[in-house]
Amino acid sequence: MKYEDLVRLKIDVQTNNDRNFLELSTLFDKPDFLEWLSKIRNKYGLDQLVRIEDYDTKLDEIGCSGKQGKFDLSIYGEKIGSEIIEYAKENATWFDGIESDNVDLFQLIDTHISILCYLFRRPPYFFDYIKQAVVCGAVEGDLFYPTQYHIVENDTLRTTTGSFQLPQIVISVSPTSTDLEIKEQVMFARHLLKTDKRLTYYKPRVDKVNKIRAYREWYWQHLAGKTYVQISTDWMNNPDIDSSDSGSDENRVLKGVAYYKKLLSI
């Protein structure tokens, strides 16, 4: 995909939380993620983005559209499509659903979002934000909660209407559970996240990058065609920039862009 096409697809990550900004941006800015996001939009007529405040209304519209179809793996290419099918064979529910000729539009889109979680090794809690990025081109990052409680019914925690979702760890708590018992289960869960192949997702950068917002902005400006000198000059002349960033010369910009590209490779 050409650089100018990538620039047009940039996702607006709306959050004051630096960790959330880092986690979401370093997924949404991956060139191959944006390429597949664009293909999903084109496939299902979602190119006309909606405002975040209209997101729920748009989902209702999709759910009530009555449109149905068969799931199409071709947008991922033959090699990745085959990989997905092999994975699907180990998940009978998903495999049955993926072969159906009459899957409703809402489920088709949800299945694509689940596949993106799978391909980029992101846990299920990324699902809603990827979906919002597809529909809105922006996300409410302040609502991004990697750690939260759920009430589980029918022995299954469902985070999607799609035919498939990635596994996740849920700690069961009873009225007699003690703080010590809960802490012990958290330790076991953390061990599983590191050792169980089904749960070993990407390795997040939990350390906060102080200049992550600047690095991201420089990355996109450079992608849009600006030189490091131009970026540096514009940045230092911007009255909205914090005084601690005023000394961002072209070498610092270059290093910042290089570091951000490294984050995108994780």
Keywords:
266 residues; 4 strands; two-stranded parallel ribbon; two-stranded antiparallel sheet; 12 helices; mainly alpha
Describe this structure in words.
By secondary structure, this protein is mainly alpha-helical. The protein folds into two domains: 1-202, no CATH class; 212-264, no CATH class. It contains twelve helices and four strands, in the order αβαααβααβααβαααα. It has helices spanning 3-8, 18-28, 31-43, 55-63, 77-89, 92-99, 105-119, 127-136, 179-195, 212-223, 228-236, 250-264, and strands at residues 12-14, 68-69, 103-104, 138-140. The strands form two sheets. Strands 1-4 form a two-stranded parallel sheet. Helix 10 (212-223) packs across helix 12 and helix 11 packs across helix 12. The longest helix has 17 residues, at 179-195. The model has no long low-confidence stretch (mean pLDDT 83).
Short description:
The chain contains 12 helices and 4 strands, in the order αβαααβααβααβαααα. The protein is mostly helical.
List the helices and strands and how they pair.
Layout: H1 3-8, E1 12-14, H2 18-28, H3 31-43, H4 55-63, E2 68-69, H5 77-89, H6 92-99, E3 103-104, H7 105-119, H8 127-136, E4 138-140, H9 179-195, H10 212-223, H11 228-236, H12 250-264
Helix pairs in contact: 10-12, 11-12
Alpha-carbon distance between the two ends: 20 Å
User: How many alpha or pi helices?
Assistant: 12
Largest sheet: 2 strands, parallel
Order of SSEs = HEHHHEHHEHHEHHHH
Low-confidence stretches: none
Q: Quote the average pLDDT.
A: 83
Calculate Rg over CA atoms.
21 Å
